[in-house]
Design brief:
The strands form eight sheets. A seven-stranded parallel β-sheet has the order 11-12-10-13-14-9-15, sandwiched between helices. Strands 16-28-27-17-26-25 form a six-stranded parallel β-sheet, with helices on both faces. Strands 2-1-4-3-5 form a five-stranded antiparallel β-sheet. It starts with a strand and ends in a 5-residue tail after the last strand. It has five domains: 105 residues, PriA, 3(prime) DNA-binding domain (GIY-YIG endonuclease, 3-Layer(aba) Sandwich); 68 residues, no CATH class; 186 residues, 3-Layer(aba) Sandwich (Rossmann fold); 181 residues, 3-Layer(aba) Sandwich (Rossmann fold), CATH 3.40.50.300; 93 residues, Ribosomal protein S10 (Alpha-Beta Plaits). It is of the alpha/beta class. It is globular. Helix 9 packs parallel to helix 10. Bound molecules: adenosine-5'-diphosphate and zinc ion (2 copies).
Length: 735
């Protein structure tokens, strides 16, 4: 009798012991079906429990109900990665393992490799006298066929009109036996080929490619820092070439697939290898199929968002992270991992290179370069003749805006459209207007669930929507507070600009790209196809359009309202602003045409704006990195957030207050530890839940790890912790 420890997908940080049948060797990393209480669950075996004490308690242990896998779902490096991650993020191993596999596997689906049944003749069958079967002509026919062909596939069996039943009778007589025949792996490496013409590389590209190629058979971590339009994709392609020649596979992480379709097509044009996309619109079956193909080495390149990082590879070759600064690499729910950090860990475990590319690297990444953990390769020039865009500030102090647009900007739009070019306007605010208020008593339309102003949407539909919890309601005609009819909308959203522009430019096509217009699966692609036709048009977009897309005919880019970022209380706001500005600005003038970037602001003299516009992202990044050093903020130190949420505001604060006391006691003899809070979170109320946090800071990651580990068992003793939801966010990126 053996006892195994099983990780279950529940939010409890422990393993569960079960009795395992004694005649079978347990598979670590394989799934089993078990019961916990009276819930049936799929768990994963983590270890054998050889502790004899357990044998005594044996009677209390339940038995495993079903063994699902004959081999581990995880390679040893993935296994190590996930164990490490569960530990580092203080997330239950069961949840971490569960998260990393396709949904169908979580549900217990058997892994069936494609196979056919083949009927093989036996020795007895070969010497069997056909006359014996005279009275059973169907069996006789099958026997003759078997003796002739030795092996019969289902296809042949059907062709001769022989049923499975007949074959089974022959089997019972010992004439033949069924055998599983596994279909041969789809092998792409034998006829691997590079298609199409490669461009002549420039000096910087050459250096980057050669440096990485030289060390691409072992772990090495690279930051490919290349301005927009500098040909990063070409660098990826030529590095991949070397990997694919050796029949190794690549994982490419992107922030969002929908917007990277063009880049993916470039990969398809260059290599005749199977490329799989892990797209959000894949169904569970398709997801599992990609996972299986990767595990068997049948695909060469897997492109996907954050969680594609956990795809098993038969022959791992390289990991590439495009737009590595993008915040979507940090999971913001449940297990809050940073995919970029885990990818580096995985590359290290697999002993393969990792390339992180960005025009606006994260400060954490630049810091890692500074510390010598990653090496930086620069692409500072745009390829071919594309010049960097001309940048200009429009001071909108005291100026009357028309639907958020200054008169100068409207004039510029006109000029660019007249020259048959495209214009892109950036505004990170969807809907018609961000606020509805009463002009008489100053009542504000707020979502009760979130204590946050409603956004006006589709004014013709008269709808208010909460962008936190998605609650909807009709727009009132009169103020519920004072019965005044004087309700006004304040501020400007993308819908309103769209309206205004269609009045100003009635003959021009206007395309609005935001979450509301791209909900539909193919709508984004339609927009992009439309833009790529190259006809003059005005694009209005939110954050979505900043994610690595190419609009070669856009010559004018304008950021309408980004001032908020300059005065945010979040110390990361300036970094995000600089990335956003640089990414949006980078959409201008990608082809041979000169681009122009206009920034509308009420604060034209803001020092950060000046550095960014005059010296560019890298100088700016260095400056804020130094500033953070002087005030000791990440990445020079480390943060952990204890987030708490519950519908009773008082209980949340009480729990955090007790938690803070506890943490202070545990760390009383360390002068470097620093606490802040309880403080309300960035969104203090969401979906009826009040949200607060405590920030813990310490220069040593290890110290923080130990502090959390020590505190966890004590936290669960605090009575409020049984009700209030507590989340540990390691290396948080927002409060
Ligand atoms: P980014 O750095 O923004 O990802 P891309 O890789 O998309 O830039 O390159 C921009 C354009 O330049 C693409 O159309 C690409 O095909 C082209 N390109 C890249 N390298 C070269 C080169 N060495 N010579 C000519 N064109 C190139
Ligand atoms: Zn009122
Ligand atoms: Zn709400």
């Amino acid at each position: 009798m053996s006892i195994v420890q099983v990780a279950l997908p529940i939010p409890l940080n422990r393993l569960f012991s079960y009795i395992y049948p004694k005649d079978i060797k347990p598979v670590i990393g394989g799934r089993v079906r078990v019961t916990l209480g009276n819930r049936k669950m799929i768990g994963i075996i983590v270890s054998l429990d050889e502790n004899d004490d357990h044998l005594l308690k044996e009677k209390k242990l339940k038995e495993i109900e079903e063994i699902i896998d004959k081999e581990s779902l995880f390679s040893s490096s993935l296994w190590k990665l996930l164990q490490w991650a569960a530990n580092y993020y203080h997330s239950p191993l069961g949840e971490v393992l569960n998260h990393s596999i396709p949904v169908l596997l979580r549900q217990g689906k058997q892994i069936n490799y494609d196979f056919k049944w083949l009927w093989h003749i036996t020795e007895k069958g070969n010497i069997f006298n056909i006359d014996v079967l005279k009275k059973a002509p169907k069996q006789q026919k099958a026997l003759i066929l078997l003796q002739q062909k030795q092996i019969i596939s289902d296809c042949i069996r059907k062709k001769y009109d022989i049923t499975t039943k007949v074959m089974q009778i022959l089997y019972s007589k010992g004439i033949c036996t069924p055998k599983k025949h596994y279909l041969p792996l789809q092998n792409w490496s034998d006829n691997f080929m590079i298609k199409g013409k490669k461009p002549i590389l420039n000096r910087e590209q050459n250096i980057a490619i050669n440096s990485i190629k030289k060390e691409d058979k072992k772990y090495s971590a690279w930051l490919l820092a290349g301005v927009t339009g500098s040909g990063k994709t070409e660098v990826y392609l030529q590095i991949l070439e070397n990997i694919l020649i050796r029949s190794q596979q690549a994982i490419i992480l992107v922030p969002e697939i929908g917007l990277t379709i063009q880049t993916i097509n470039v990969f398809r044009k260059r290599f005749n290898v199977p490329i799989d996309l892990l797209h959000s619109s894949l169904n569970n079956k398709e997801r599992l199929a990609v996972w299986l193909r990767a595990r068997r080495g049948e695909n060469a390149i897997i492109i996907g968002t954050r969680s594609a990082l956990f795809t098993p590879l038969a022959r791992p070759g390289i990991i590439i992270i495009d737009e590595e600064h993008d915040s979507s690499y940090k999971q913001q729910e449940g297990w809050r991992y940073q995919a970029r950090d885990l990818a580096v860990y995985r590359a290290y475990q697999e002993n393969i290179p990792i390339v992180m590319g960005s025009a606006t690297p994260a400060l954490e990444t630049l810091y890692n370069v500074f510390k010598g953990k990653y090496r930086q390769l620069n692409l500072l020039k745009r390829v071919s003749n594309a010049k960097l865009a001309i940048q200009q500030i429009i001071d909108i102090k005291g100026i009357t805006l028309v639907g958020g647009l200054s008169p100068l900007l409207i004039k510029k739009i006109q000029i660019h459209l007249y020259a048959k070019n495209q214009v892109l306007l950036f505004l990170n605010r969807r809907g018609f207007a961000p606020l509805l208020l009463c002009n008489d008593c100053h009542w504000i339309a707020k979502c009760k669930n979130c204590d946050h102003g409603y956004t006006l949407h589709h004014q013709y539909k008269r709808q208010l929507r909460c962008h936190y919890c998605n609650h909807k309601q009709v727009i009132p005609f009169i103020c519920p507070n004072c019965n005044s009819k004087n309700l006004i909308s304040v501020g400007v959203g993308t819908e309103q600009i769209e309206n205004k522009l269609s009045q100003l430019f009635p003959k021009t096509k206007i395309l609005r790209i935001d979450q509301d217009t791209t909900r539909n699966k193919d709508s984004l692609k339609k927009y992009i196809d439309n833009i790529n036709k190259g006809e003059p048009c005005i694009l209005i977009g939110t954050q979505m359009i900043t994610k690595g897309h190419h609009f070669p005919n856009v010559t004018l880019v304008s950021l309408l309202n980004v001032d908020g970022a300059l005065f945010s209380s979040d110390f990361r706001a300036t970094e995000r602003f600089a990335q956003l500005y640089t990414q949006v600005a980078g959409r201008a003038g990608r082809a041979e045409k000169q681009g122009e970037v206009l920034l509308q602001t009420y604060y034209p003299d803001h020092p950060l704006l000046k550095t960014l516009l005059n010296k560019g992202y890298f100088s700016f990044a260095n400056q804020i990195l130094l500033e953070r050093k002087s005030v000791l903020l990440p990445p020079w130190t480390n943060h952990v957030l204890f987030r708490a949420e519950f519908f009773d505001n008082k209980k949340v604060i009480e729990l955090l207050q007790k938690l803070r006391n506890l943490l202070e006691n545990l760390s009383s003899n360390d002068a470097s530890v620093w606490f802040m809070g309880p403080l309300p979170s960035l969104h203090p109320k969401k979906n009826k839940f009040w949200r607060w946090h405590i920030l813990v800071q310490h220069p040593s990651r290890k110290y923080l790890q130990q502090l959390i580990t020590k505190s966890l068992p004590l936290i669960y003793i605090i009575p409020e912790s049984r009700k209030v939801k507590l989340i540990i966010d390691i290396d948080p990126i927002e409060s």
